[in-house]
């Protein structure tokens, strides 16, 4: 029970937002706006009838009827008090009033709340043309002392009204409030969507810069447009409001300020609350605390991590329900990171199911692909224009979509990455030549202008690398040799500057080897398997050799049967080829083509895993992920994307004119017995097996930990110089040597013999 002063006889009664009625022989009913509660138990009826707020404790205990002892009555009071249902009041009895009831519903002492608000002063700052009269009137109506003079310093809370939370003037306001140790409340009372909060409490971590960083992350298209227009900062928006929404916004802002000053505290005061006044829906958006924030945190956290060894520890596996073996189930991963999904403060705006195609496809989308481009024109052009998730179940696919968005966010250049300035020649042997990773052929450099004009940005051929050019380099950890090496920052982070003196890129990041996982070990293994998968795909695709079929029936997987049935209902045929390379780790390609018309719309999906059955499932899951774009293709060959390579492929490629897509009939179809068991019970042991396989071919396993402190979900960039991306990278090496080693060709292919169609996925 709340305390009363020592010189008063406090009265006891139910909190004012509650109303009690005794039902003889039943107990007592307690009514509130939240519903009804039945109070039962010995002597409840006798005590409840006395708790009308006009008696002190002694009077209540002395007024219980015959048969109820003072001790029994005191026990009932103690029970009601521990449940937060009754309170003590001082002073003269007053009739119940709505304000007191409100504060008691909030868990506050109504008298103290009234005194506190009457003593509190608020400074109101209005930026630009935002109307502030409604908020000022509402603050005064709440009994607060309101100052609109910018010179006032002795206030308890600053309220700032703005038209955009990215208004650059908010940075100065945040700095001023932090220096003064004063809390402040931003609000956007205009537009169809009202924003209120958070309350920045300077005694707690987190600041406006933490919030602004996330908001900008969800407005990348706007930033691109502003850059194209030669401007910076947020784009100005038209004034949008009607008097009722302006008045409502002002009152809601005042209510949030008044609650804070009265002493009410709750977790959502650390969030942005948005109210859609058109749909009348509200939502809270968690505001991040960014430990690496240069204003309120340590900006060296990311930089320091890059100089530390990547330590891979034991990580026992759990079955994740069909998509593989991880350290944590997809359901637990989603529960831990769902707060990252928000169109305001999230790393992911939203995750939605792609409704094109059968539900079995389990395809989810999670916003634009930050790896795709830095300009608006390419957002529609590529098959990978958006981040997406795939999986055996909706839970797998939803988590996959979340992780891909977090992966791309974490791999974007934020400015706090570890960087060493220098040239390849000047840095010496610690630096790795970027073309050992990119693997462009000299002839590609020579013909790059014409190539780049004809193909999508994913196939872009950079400028020849200048060994004497000064640029930024970032440490990566060699798991093989247990030491740091250096690679160009622009090869590792999207948006980093890798330009030559002429302003054109010499190096360019891509997502090959980027991976997020429930643990560091999970992410490293997935990133490495992706590199192995794409290397095997490139070797097959550009050499155009026939590969052995995979016997789907032999795997006896009911899910595979359902996938085949779903494709058959769409008039399509499915088959799978084994692309396992000299590394001996199962890699497969699943293919699907139309059989009901001349245009076959051939689509592919790839998968790699130490367990062949999981590699097979992954290839089919990725196939399903790619399917929506062709499911709704029009008979005249129009698709939902503009990638010239992909569209040309779907319009013209058939198994007749691309015979390497068909199985090698001279080879026996692969069955589970053809694949040795490589999986262990621990992710760290799996990584060690893969490392040994790579080292056996003279390949170095490099890892950069890209985990962002404010996210927590482990993200890595895995690089294996010499492994081939499946895009057009034609330098000498495995692309030519491995087919001979595997007996696919008698002699290495000539450059002119390579597949002229670039891999477009």
TrEMBL record:
InterPro entries reported for this sequence: Bacteriocin_synth_cyclodeHase, TOMM_cyclo_SagD, Ubiquitin-activating_enz, YcaO-like_dom
GO molecular function: ubiquitin-like modifier activating enzyme activity
Domain of life: Bacteria
Pfam families: YcaO
Annotated ranges, domain YcaO: 389-761
Protein's name in the database: YcaO domain-containing protein
Native source organism of the sequence: Actinokineospora fastidiosa
């Amino acid at each position: 029970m709340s305390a009363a002063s020592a010189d008063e006889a406090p009265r006891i009664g139910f909190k004012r937002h509650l109303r009690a009625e005794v039902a003889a022989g039943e107990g007592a009913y307690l009514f509130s706006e939240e519903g009804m509660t039945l109070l039962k138990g010995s002597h409840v009826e006798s005590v409840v009838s006395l708790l009308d707020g006009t008696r002190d404790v002694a009077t209540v205990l002395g007024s219980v009827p015959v048969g109820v002892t003072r001790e029994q009555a005191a026990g009932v009071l103690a029970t009601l008090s521990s449940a937060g249902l009754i309170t003590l009041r001082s002073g003269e009895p007053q009739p119940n009033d709505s304000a007191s009831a409100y504060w008691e519903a909030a868990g506050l002492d109504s008298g103290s709340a009234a005194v506190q608000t009457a003593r509190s002063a608020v400074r109101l700052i209005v930026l630009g043309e935002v109307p502030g009269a409604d908020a000022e009137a509402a603050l005064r109506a709440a009994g607060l002392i309101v100052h609109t003079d910018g010179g006032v310093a002795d206030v308890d809370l600053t309220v700032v009204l703005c038209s955009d939370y990215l208004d650059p003037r908010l940075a100065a306001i945040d700095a001023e409030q932090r220096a003064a140790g004063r809390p402040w409340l931003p609000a956007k009372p205009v537009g169809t969507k009202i924003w209120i909060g958070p309350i920045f409490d300077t005694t707690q971590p987190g600041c406006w810069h933490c919030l602004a960083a996330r908001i900008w992350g969800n407005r990348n298209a706007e930033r691109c447009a502003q850059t194209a227009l030669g401007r910076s900062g947020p784009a100005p928006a038209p004034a949008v409001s009607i008097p009722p929404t302006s008045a409502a916004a002002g009152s809601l802002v005042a209510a949030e300020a008044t609650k804070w000053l009265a002493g009410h505290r709750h977790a959502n005061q650390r969030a942005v609350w948005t109210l859609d006044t058109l749909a009348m829906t509200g939502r809270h958006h968690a505001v991040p605390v960014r430990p690496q924030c240069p204003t309120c945190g340590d900006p060296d956290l990311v930089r320091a991590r890059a100089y530390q060894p990547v330590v891979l520890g034991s990580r026992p596996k759990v079955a994740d329900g069909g998509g593989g073996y991880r350290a944590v189930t997809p359901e637990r991963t989603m529960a831990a990171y769902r707060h990252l999904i928000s169109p305001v403060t999230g790393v992911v705006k939203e995750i939605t199911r792609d409704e094109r195609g059968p539900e079995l496809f389990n395809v989810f989308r999670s916003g634009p692909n930050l790896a795709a481009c830095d300009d608006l024109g390419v957002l529609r052009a590529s098959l990978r224009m958006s981040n997406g998730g795939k999986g055996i179940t909706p839970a797998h696919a939803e988590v996959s979509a979340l992780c891909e968005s977090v992966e791309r966010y974490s791999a974007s250049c934020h400015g706090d990455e570890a960087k060493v300035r220098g040239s390849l020649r000047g840095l010496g042997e610690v630096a790795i030549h970027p073309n050992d990773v990119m693997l462009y052929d000299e002839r590609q450099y020579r013909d790059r202008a014409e190539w780049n004009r004809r193909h999508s940005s994913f196939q872009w051929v950079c400028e020849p690398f200048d060994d004497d050019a000064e640029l930024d380099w970032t440490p990566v950890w060699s798991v093989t040799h247990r030491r740091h090496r250096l690679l160009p920052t622009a090869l590792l982070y999207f948006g980093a500057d890798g330009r030559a003196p002429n302003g054109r890129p010499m190096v360019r990041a891509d997502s090959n080897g980027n991976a997020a996982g429930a643990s560091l070990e999970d992410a490293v293994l997935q990133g490495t398997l992706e590199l192995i998968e794409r290397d095997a795909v490139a070797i097959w695709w550009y050499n155009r050799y026939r590969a052995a079929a995979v016997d789907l029936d032999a795997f006896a997987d009911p899910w595979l049967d359902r996938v085949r049935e779903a494709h058959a209902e769409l008039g399509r045929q499915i088959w799978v080829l084994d692309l396992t390379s000299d590394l001996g780790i199962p890699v497969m390609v699943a293919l699907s083509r139309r059989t009901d018309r001349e245009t076959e719309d051939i689509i592919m999906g790839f998968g790699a895993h130490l367990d062949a059955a999981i590699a097979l499932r992954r290839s089919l899951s990725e196939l399903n992920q790619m399917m929506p774009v062709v499911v709704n293709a029009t008979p005249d060959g129009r698709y939902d994307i503009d990638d010239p390579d992909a569209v040309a492929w779907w319009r013209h490629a058939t198994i007749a004119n691309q015979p390497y897509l068909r199985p090698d009939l001279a080879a026996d179809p692969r069955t589970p017995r053809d694949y040795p068991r490589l999986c262990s019970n621990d992710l760290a042991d799996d990584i060690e097996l893969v490392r040994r396989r790579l080292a056996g071919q003279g390949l170095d396993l490099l890892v950069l930990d890209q985990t962002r402190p404010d996210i927590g979900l482990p993200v890595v960039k895995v690089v294996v110089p010499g492994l081939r991306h499946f895009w057009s990278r034609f330098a000498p090496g495995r692309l030519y040597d491995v087919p001979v080693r595997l007996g696919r060709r008698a002699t290495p292919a000539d450059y002119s013999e390579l597949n002229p169609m670039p891999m477009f996925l």
